[in-house]
Design brief:
Blueprint (H helix, E strand, L loop, with lengths): L1 H26 L1 H6 L1 H47 L4 H16 L5
């Protein structure tokens, strides 16, 4: 995930750089001419913040399906081993698995 975060962030830097710098220069010319380093610093900070946000969002969004797939594989493995149990224990195991998948988790 770290390499994906860095790739997305690096890819978005020019776009967010333009979105933060151009309006600051065009619409706040007086402030820009009085203190250009401050405007550049604020634009750089906004660019870094926006790029980092999008990088984190993409990593979370793309990690969710692989996490769900791993969970479903674990559930399938547990279910296949449950089929070797006596019927009463198998029913209890299935009930527990259903409770695990339907109860909300709190972070």
């Amino acid at each position: 995930p770290l390499d994906r975060f860095l790739n997305v962030s690096k890819w978005m830097l020019p776009i967010y750089g333009a979105l933060h710098l151009i309006p600051a220069v065009l619409f706040k010319r007086k402030v820009f001419w009085e203190n250009p380093w401050r405007v550049l610093a604020r634009a750089s900070l906004g660019t870094a913040r926006s790029s980092a946000f999008l990088g984190v969002f993409v990593v979370i969004y793309q990690s969710k399906p692989s996490f769900a797939l791993r969970i479903s594989k674990i559930e399938f493995t547990l279910l296949s081993f449950s089929l070797l149990l006596p019927p009463a224990q198998m029913a209890e195991r299935l009930k527990m698995m259903m409770m695990m998948t339907t109860t909300p988790t709190h972070a």
